[in-house]
Amino acid sequence: MEHLDARLGTIAAMTPRCRAVADIGCDHGKLTVDLLVSGRCPKVIAADLRPIPLSKAQENCRKAGCEDRAELRLGNGLEVLQPGEATDIVIAGMGAETIMRAEALFCQGRFTDAHIELERAYAQVRDNGQINMALCCDFLSRRLSLNTDVEQRYTFAERYAELLQYHDASWINIWSATSAYYHALRGEAEEIPEIFSQHRLSDINMLAPGKPMMEMIENQVYLAQGAYARVVGYSAELLPVCEAMHYALVALHLRIQTAAAYEKLGKTEEARVWLRKALADAEADGFVMPFVENYDCLQPILAREMKNDLIVKITDLGEAAMARNAASVRPAAFDVLTAREFEIVELMVQRLSNREIAEKLYLSEGSVKQYANQIYSKLHIDGDTRTKRKQLAELLGQKP
After folding, report:
1. Chain-centre distance of CA 337, in angstroms?
2. Is 320 helix (H, G, I), strand (E, B) or coil?
3. 230-252 tens-digit pLDDT
4. Taking a C-beta distance cutoff of 8 angstroms, is the pair 261, 253 a contact?
């Protein structure tokens, strides 16, 4: 059996013993062969969207004597799978590795480093058909934008319109989850897709490995809707599943959601117990953002805790996020703009000239003109200057 490099060796070691694993983006099938020959998994569904690497994977399985236990499928991402046929999924292509690294950096509150890795991940999946990975990039990009300036490639509506062309329900489900989580964090319950806002996840088919994440997002929606007792009950139902599947990060989110719900219910002691367990789980990796994303609920109990480096960082980032959110409340139509661009929009609808805007923001008049052109382009606004400013005002819900 061919020796795995350090990256694939680590992935193989982290793959739980299971009935059937799907190796998505299997490339030459080295991980597939290792999982089968080592006996860690009796069956592997190996998939890749490129015929030549998949052919090489088939050859490697034949050489290793395990081709009878490997099902090789040509196709894109998870669309090659049927519900229930894989108990675990490995997505270990370079695009997946990069976005996972970006997610870890984000969880640690390292926004600039996370943004750099996010841009690398977008570059790796661009134009290669990995829509599922692009949606994962979107998910991080949206959450980053709540804490720092990150330009969005699409509005939610534009991405949804693109996905409809592919007729792939699994991608629509990922989009819905991204939208639900983002709008739940912003407290925009009316913007949450119906499948989540009406709690109809049971109506859709989803692969078992992705179910805990989707249900954690549904729990965040319950929290945003003020259904605090439901959050506590749902978490109790989901946590044993997450622990059995070794989904530590999802379990961390659930514990934080439970602490937040207990605090909202006035159950201070229960909230403190759940918060302390979550803090203990997060400390080794320095994960702060799951707490920061729920800081408005956790603020009172965090204030009562003995301060350490982790709590200080959570508090600092939480206060900054709340201030940023308060300063940037804006209609969804403007989500595609950066914070600076939206700041300029607000001044433009006040009928300030480019020169006056430049003076207020300490920019050159030329820079303001460049920003204005970018804003109109992103919002698909045409016409003369007066017409365009009138349309901006209408989008903001103001009288021109």
Report:
1. 19
2. helix
3. 999 999 999 999 998 889 999 99
4. no
